[in-house]
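Tokens in:
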């Protein structure tokens, strides 16, 4: 089992910055990659940023150049640095981890943290 706890959300004005943290505990050695997703009211959950165990990153087009995902292996923590925030970035942000098992995978989710960007 893997437990994920997010922190760092809040209210910020457009153009501002926030840093989200996701602390992992449990069987973290089994994690293949970690992601940040977000879900705005009335919309589907979408992938924002992804980082593999080797440090390779990928981003949604809507956040490229503004968001940075990183990891601190010593602290078992993944971060999402969000700069130049826009009102459309308002959503609940979720930390996600997965473990590949054979042809399938196990998914782990955090409880989510609210990010609100005012115009």
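Residues out:
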């Amino acid at each position: 089992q893997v437990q994920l706890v997010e922190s760092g959300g809040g209210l910020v004005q457009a153009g501002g910055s926030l840093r989200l943290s996701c602390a992992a505990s449990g069987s973290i050695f089994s994690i293949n990659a970690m992601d940040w997703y977000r879900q705005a009211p009335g919309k589907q959950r979408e992938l924002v940023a992804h980082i593999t165990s080797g440090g390779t990153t990928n981003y949604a087009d809507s956040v490229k150049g503004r968001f940075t995902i990183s990891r601190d292996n010593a602290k078992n923590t993944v971060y999402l640095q969000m700069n130049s925030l826009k009102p459309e970035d308002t959503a609940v942000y979720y930390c996600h981890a997965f473990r590949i098992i054979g042809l399938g995978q196990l998914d782990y989710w955090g409880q989510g943290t609210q990010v609100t960007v005012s115009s």
